[in-house]
Amino acid sequence: MSKFNFILLAVLAFTVLSCADKDGKGAQYFPNMMYSDAYETYGEYDIFYDGQEAKLPVEGSISRGWMPYEYEDNLDGYDAAKADLKNPLDYTEKNMNKGAELFNIYCAICHGAGDGKGTLVQREKILGVPAFDDQGRAITEGSVYHVIRYGLNTMGSYASQLSQEEMWQVNMYVMKLKGDLEGKEQPPFEKEQ
Ligand code: HEC
User: Fold this and answer.
1) Which of 124, 152, 162, 172 to mutate to test the pocket of ligand 1 (most atoms within 8 A of CB)?
2) pLDDT by residue (tens digit) across 36-56?
3) Which of 2, 56, 128, 179 has a Cα at 20 to 30 A from 120?
4) Ligand 1 atom 11 nearest Cα
């Protein structure tokens, strides 16, 4: 086909096809695709028992990567976590390094190197940030997890920023900082699996 004929055909085809009804959608080959019978996620339909398409998860459902946390957000829960809750992660260099990295991102701005003298404290933007070796608090890995998960007074919860595993990694590093401040020697790491 010569170039000229091709252009002529293209113009002709365009002219014919563009003559469709202005308000209509032109020829439809798959009307079922254009007008889908599918239910919209947040639509309301009679066929559902509560009229709603979107459903809440079944009661007792647990998000992926999360385990239920049985300690309540109150003083009794804090005391119980402080006494009983233990870090389930292996004590490895990898977990410790990840914990240090996350601590420096999320916590060091207030807690510094665990001494409670982070940048915000030095600039007097926040008060009452304790050192991790504070004798009156005597933090344990259980209490630290509880506080990261729920927050404590002016310190917010980190449950939406950190996964459960990450909270335990940060926790490992917090306990290391505490040991450093107390001049304790750190135990040797376990071998990576
Ligand atoms: C905005 C500043 C700020 C940030 C960021 C912050 N904290 Fe705190 N943290 C505080 C303050 C203030 C307290 C004292 C709360 C109180 O006892 O009223 C505290 C208390 C603590 C305690 C002692 C709790 C106890 O049992 O007495 C620990 C442990 C702790 N924070 C860990 C962390 C970790 C881990 C992170 C990062 C995931 C973090 N904090 C981030 C301000 C902060």
Assistant:
1) 152
2) 778 888 888 888 888 888 888
3) 179
4) 129
